[in-house]
Design goal:
Elements: H1 3-11, H2 16-29, H3 39-59, H4 62-98
Length: about 100
């Protein structure tokens, strides 16, 4: 793991996976004398990994599953938070108009 990856992992633990994946081909090839992976190479590797993951997600229907999950979360949010808030708001509004 390079110093740059260590610094980024300390700031953003979730961002570590992308850097590990970007450096993995260099580690597998055993190229240790080249030092840090250049920024353009990191950009290309990250772009290719992103494109492949999007293609796989679309191919296996993961996008549809995620979309339906977010739809269910939206309905739950409406049922648990918005509907009670609106009914209490209308009730208090009517109560204030009468009194």
């Amino acid at each position: 793991m390079t110093e740059q990856s260590k610094k980024l992992s300390q700031r953003r633990p979730g961002g570590m996976l992308g850097h590990v994946r970007a450096e993995q081909p260099v580690m597998i090839a055993g190229i240790r004398s080249c030092g840090e992976l250049p920024a353009p190479a990191r950009f290309v590797i990250a772009g290719v990994l992103l494109a492949v993951s999007i293609f796989l997600a679309a191919r296996f229907g993961l996008v549809t599953v995620i979309a339906s999950g977010y739809r269910m979360l939206a309905y739950a949010m409406l049922a648990i938070y918005v509907v009670p808030l609106m009914t209490l708001g209308v009730w208090q509004f009517r109560k204030a108009r009468r009194g």
